Amino acid sequence: MHFAIPTLIIFSLPVLNQIIYVCSSWVMMLEAIFQPHFYSSKFLDSFMRIQLATICVIIMPYLSQCISSEHKCCIIFKMSYNIPMIDFSKCGLLVKDDEINEQNLQSIGDELYSALSTAGFSYLTGHGIPWSKVDDMNAIGEKFYALPLATKMQFVQKGFTLTYDPIGTSTANEKDVDSYEGFRTSSDAYTNENINWPDVPGMRECYAEFADISSKLLMRLMKALGYGMRLKDKDYFCQAHSLMNQKGNYSIIKTLKYPAVDKQDPVSLNRIGEHHDKTTMTLLFQDEMGGLQVRDLCGKFVDVQPVPEAIVLNIGGTLEAWSGERLRATKHRVIPPSDPSKHGLIRRSVAYFGQANNEVLMKKLAFEDDVEQEDDDEQPLTVEAYILKTLAPFFSHVK
Ligand SMILES: O=C(O)CCC(=O)C(=O)O
Ligand SMILES: [Fe+2]
Hints:
The protein is α+β, with helices and mostly antiparallel strands and about 400 residues long. Helix content is about 40%, strand content about 15%. It has two domains: about 5-80, no CATH class; about 85-395, Jelly Rolls, CATH 2.60.120.330.
């Protein structure tokens, strides 16, 4: 709210100006009338000024109606939209489970809830995931991307288990073609011994380890969020995510490699189209290239500047819907960096899309101060039914 006072001052100035304008015009008019010789040009001048002011007063409410309440709220409160930075070190992975106290969970949870219910995004420092693990993922990913196309094409498949996305075949919003090469895996890829991984030594272990540490961090975040949202059962979100990277849960890891920008090819200018994520919570590990942008409340894109070793955290559609839209699945995209000298460079990112277990029912949440839990009129969907419904259009083109 610190920016509300200067904003109100800025917005009250035109109104003050208008009042002074009208008063001085009336003085001018009276002067013109009561001078010994009627001063016609001054009279006309002041008459015009009063008319102009009257028109302004008439059209102002009309103009105000044309601006949506979201935009007004944005004009008044969100002049300085920014992505909050949260220091998670008191609940991060370097702290043992039994050393985390309720007070820290509550204070960090409050920060998380505040960020994820407004911006829908936040930076996370002090998380405890060594950045060398992100470098390992990018390095192993690179070994896979360096394989002949025909070999990689054997991994193009419908579903979540283990999938290669060749350049120009994904669309994050069903409209624009994205220009990245990606490889995604889900639980079966680590737990089912019969799944064939690409012939890249250490790839399976690297992905499995990254899935493991990401899910541990996500669990801590879910716990803090339970405190921040003042859920009746603070462990509710954690229990709902208990099977991450195991059978019965569709949490996904994806590595993305965006090729250098080719100005002749419009597809390469759209690194990833505007979309919101679909699962509950995303941990995004971006490199220093830049280009990630989120849409703010005014509908304007704002840069999510890379912050060294900070994770970008955001909410997906499953948790937005489940939380009764208290948490926001903010739209975002990736464009080439604004600095043209970086256009010749590749961008890499690793994303962990955390998801609740398939069988969890997306029931209305129960809060600390709820008197009694009302019965839902509608039968809640399971997480699996919700995600399959949401993702169906994205797989319709896959044979
Ligand atoms: O590569 C990035 O930075 C963003 C990727 C993303 O938004 C996604 O895969 O959903
Ligand atoms: Fe995304």
